[in-house]
Amino acid sequence: MRISYKKLPYQEKAVKAVVDTLSSHDETTHRLVLDSDTLDESVRNTLMSNQQRYPGSNYLTPFPQFNIEMETGTGKTMVYLKTIVEIHKRFNENKFIIVVPSRAIKAGVEDSLKKLKGYLSTVCQTEPYHYFVYDSKQIGDLQNFESSSFEIMLTNIQAFNKNSNIINQEYNEGFFGGRPLDQIRNARPIVVIDEPQSVDGAEAGKKAIASLNPKFTLRYSATHKDRQYPLLYEYGPVKAFKDGMVKHIETLGTDIDTDGNLDVVTLKEKPIFKNGRLQAKVLAYKAVKDDFDKRTLTLSVNDSLAKKSRNPRYQKLGRVKKIDAIDDYVEFENGKRVELGSLEGEQEIWVNSQMRAMIKDHLDRELAMQAQGIKILSLIFLDKVKNYRIYTKDGPKNGKYAQLFEQLYTQIIHSDPKYKKLYDYKVPVSEVHDGYFAQDKVKKNKPARYRDTGGDTAKDETAYDAIMADKEGLLTKYIPGNPKTDTKAAKLRFIFSHSALKEGWDNPNVFQILSITTPKNDLTRRQKIGRGLRIPVNQRGERVYNEKQNIVTIYANETYNRFAEGLQNEYLKSGLFDSKIDADFFTNLLVTNQKSTKYDSSLTEETSDGLSLSSDANNQQDSSNNRPISKAESHTFVNVLQESGVIGSNGKPSINGLRKLNDSKEKKHIVEKAVQSGLDEEPVQTMVNNILVKFDIPKPTNRKQRVNVDLTNENNPYLNNLWDKIAHKVNYHVRFSEAKLIDEIVNGDNSISNIQFKKMTATQTRARIDLLENKVTGEIVKQNTEHLTWSKLPIIDVTKQIADRVELTRQAIARIILMSQEKDNNFINNIKMNPSLFVQRAVKNIRAHEQKLLNQSLFYVQSGETWPKELLKPFSADRSTLWEVPERGFKKTLFKRIATQSEEEAEFAKSLVNEEKIKYFLKLPSWFKIPTPFGNYNPDWAILAVTNNKQRLYFVVDTKSTNEMSELREKERARIAAGRQAYKAKGFEDVDFEAPIKVVGDLEI
Question: What is the 3-state secondary structure (H, E, C) of 980-994?
């Protein structure tokens, strides 16, 4: 098959932006306009039409340079090759050099030069170019470069950025006794730089480009770092996604929950220096109620992870011995080292789950798109080549991941009859996958071997050659019975690589990308998605635009939120997103020149920071149709935005501030304020519109409002009397026998054999990633949870772990387990299925039986201490949780608003206000606690009532939605029972404890 090319509007605009600039926007001229003044005026017109900033005129020296921004996957190479051909056709320019940063990109560009040569000649109606790839071993190719033919030379920057390069050497013979580089310099080529941030980001690169003596340079990238050059055209990620010119992105992450059976520790982010010491955030299993859940914990040197997580599995690690912020790791006393992002402990399970999901997605997409003639490809990045291919004396063999892939692929394709419809159904599993790695050359008595590399070594060229050799073959679907498709490339659908394919290779039909890489791997999120962003092609080589199916799935080792946040940070670092509006944010935005007296007079004044509102550009109004916004104007308007509350002192826009610019009245007020500050209205409108383009303005959301709650009359005699009665602190005492406890645990209600065992799980979350104007968001579209059966669980001493946490010996725990096994033959097998969870739930079960016996022998005594009344202070709370006391109730309670947790509590408070016999009541604060064996207990109310015969009654009350103790949770019942015992202590003779109470009428007053 051959790829069919089609004119795309945004690509045509990118070409036109360059050609128009170089012709001074004169469609009739065939002469390059390189005169500084004329070219600068032309650049300004281009920038203004594309709403870009003017960077000043320094871009003109020592030779003009221009930026063109093209998002990955939108055909950057096509654009600059077509631009070269159009410049040749329009201006009769013949000498071009394409400079790339790496071998990978060079291989990709060489492939495009070969395949686009005929197409571009036809579509542009001009003669085809001749191209060659510079090779220092064939230096003679340069001797033809100075001729009159249409020549394109392709090279990487490493070939000429050092004095020792052959191209920079003096020759006594050939090249007329000079340097090979002189052939290029004499030709005054036009230089195209692919990925300039990697080519001339350093001074050596800039010097090397200058050594070519170019007429001008065109710089193409998705992530420009040097912004001092005019951006003639921009087709960024947000525009590409909105236009449907690249695939949409989704992530699939697998969260493994082994319930603490594996001692998993993951370093979540780079260690930071905080509060005078290095701190590291790790993900570990922490005891949470009757389970172990993954939680983020902060560690410092000498911290115990076992203690912080309350998980005995981590005791063998010892304390934190070292935190390294350079190499990003945490080391424990036992020598275990946890590196950034490592899936330590669960890697094997994670890889299994993610690869299974990738294969299933691949097959399902094949089934859905088979009739459209779209071949589906999956790309898998490995941590080490040996995990895919190993070498033995008998030759190369499958590594562990190749073995796992073949096992899973065979299982899945035969798991559902629907897959029998696939053309590839009967293709042997060994033929559907292959690896593309850097390869050693074959030597005597030494076969070729594949190597781990960084993706830009000479050895990597073997991988590029192999994958580029039959690019169209990889897009060809295998069809049984068709000999033309009975090829290795057509049958290949799953591509494994190390680093070789991380850049420079973009296959449009990659729909799945799985990355099994080490924490040190430098594969960015943008590189991952970049390998699969292109729109797919069918068997006729035509692009198929279908937003519902054009989705690339990234199988990530992080949550979708973290992936979106990380991708957003990469865009921010690249300058593609704006996060704040600093003083120079609007500087060099272009506006139409205004020749009004009002404008001139206002711009001669000085701002408060001493900057003049007049600039060279402003003083040249007669010679230009547009002008850049000056620093002073930008500073002035930013001050206006701060004063108007649009942005904070740190420059970050507030949500409410951005909404003001969307409100016509507020926007008009801000514009008027800016004009009063000395600015002309047109640049102000331009700056406002720029904000609206650069920043997403979120829709209003309901936010909780916190309010202050004040005291009414804190010297009320009823309050003092009530507080004196109830505020005594207490201690408790208990006694019970071990034999009776063991019998209750094994044979009583809720026996330990009734524990609910659950399997470990792998939860896969699929989320759609959306690109907005200045941020990346994610939204869950599907979740799937599967149970895990893992045969490699470490042995846990359950008797010791339980005994360490309850008041029983290991022998007693062993007796409980053996007695329970006699009642249920599967009891011990169930423990083996999830021992860590059994320990946690057994502890809870035993404590529940302890509580039952404790209640039977529990008694309290007053400690001699009291709760200070001074602790009753004003507080703040969410308005929605507060019941507002009517004014008539102020004499009956301390606070003007009462914090309630339910409608029932609010109704109860209303009844307390209305009931005449209730003279005073108080919603007890959260710090008013009664200690119990089952945790601290905080009753709801303290109430003082006066009966008809003038007798004072004092109550401590707990309100519930029911009067029945049996309807309450076990822990609630236990605490209420303990509270009842507490107020039976000597000294509380005048206080009645009542619970559960539903309405005031339940009190005997």
Answer: HHHCCCCCCCCEEEE
pLDDT value, residue 696: 67
- C-alpha–C-alpha distance, residues 942 and 462, integer Å: 82
Reduced to 3 states (helix: H, G, I; strand: E, B; else coil), residue 321 is strand
Residue 491 near residue 376 (C-beta atoms within 8 A): no
pLDDT along the chain (1005 residues), means of 10: 86 97 94 94 92 91 95 92 97 96 86 94 96 89 83 94 87 66 92 93 91 97 89 90 90 86 86 91 88 92 95 92 92 91 75 94 97 95 85 83 96 96 96 75 47 45 51 89 92 82 71 75 67 90 93 82 74 67 88 54 40 42 71 93 90 84 88 93 89 70 68 88 94 83 90 86 86 77 80 78 87 94 90 88 88 81 93 87 89 91 87 90 93 88 89 90 81 88 93 90 84
Return the pLDDT at 703.
46
pLDDT of 902 reads 83
Amino acid at 627: R
Q: In the numeric block, which tokens belong to residue 526?
A: 């943008």
Asked whether the beta carbons of 449 and 459 are under 8 A apart, the reply is no
Strand boundaries in 618-658, DSSP class E: 626-628
H-helix or E-strand spanning residue 865: strand 859-866
| Token reading at 138 | 């064939």
Residues 295/299/304/309 CA torsion (nearest 10 deg): -10
- Two tokens at 86? 């159009």
For 213, 280, 287, 560, 982, the CA distances from 295, given in Å and listed in that order, are: 59, 13, 9, 17, 36
The residue type of 750 is: N
What is the distance between the alpha carbons of residues 314 and 297, in angstroms, rounded to a whole number?
13
Give the CA angle between residues 2, 153, 139 to the nearest 5°. Answer: 125
- For residues 966 and 946, what is the distance between their CA atoms, to the nearest angstrom? 31
- Given a contact cutoff of 8 angstroms between Cβ atoms, the answer to whether 431 and 491 are in contact is yes
pLDDT of res. 461: 47
The span from the CA of 951 to the CA of 130, in Å, is: 110
Q: What is the pLDDT of residue 880?
A: 82
Which distant-in-sequence residues (6+ apart) come within 8 Å of 322 by Cβ? 301, 330, 331
Beta strands in 101-189 (DSSP E): 130-133, 151-156
Write out the two tokens for 952. Answer: 């004072």
Distance CA 133, CA 152 (A): 9
DSSP-based three-state secondary structure for 678: coil
d(CA 182, CA 171): 11
DSSP run (H or E) holding 920: strand 918-923
* Residue 74 neighbours by CB distance under 10 Å: 25
Question: From CA 410, how far away is CA 428, in angstroms rounded?
Answer: 9
Structure tokens at 251: 């992530």
Residue 899 half-sphere exposure toward CB, CA atoms < 13 A: 15
Are the beta carbons of 449 and 518 closer than 8 angstroms?
A: no
Radius of gyration of the chain, Cα coordinates, nearest whole angstrom:
37
pLDDT value at residue 713: 80
Q: Rounded to whole angstroms, how far apart are CA atoms 775 and 442? A: 49
| DSSP code at position 456 | -
Sign of torsion over alpha carbons 904, 910, 912, 915 = negative
Contact 663, 631 (CB under 8 A): no
* C-alpha to C-alpha distance for 602 and 607, rounded to whole angstroms: 11
> Residue 171 carries which DSSP code?
-
- Distance (Å, whole) CA 844 – CA 839: 9
- The per-type count for the chain, helices as H runs and strands as E runs, is 29, 38
Q: Which residues contact 574 (CB under 8 A, 6 or more apart)?
A: 222, 223, 224, 225, 526
Buried (b) or exposed (e) across 873-889, using 16+ Cβ within 10 A? eeeeeeeebbbebeeeb
How much is the pTM?
0.70
- Sequence-ordered list of residues with C-beta below 8 angstroms from that of 75, at least 6 positions apart, any chain: 8, 11
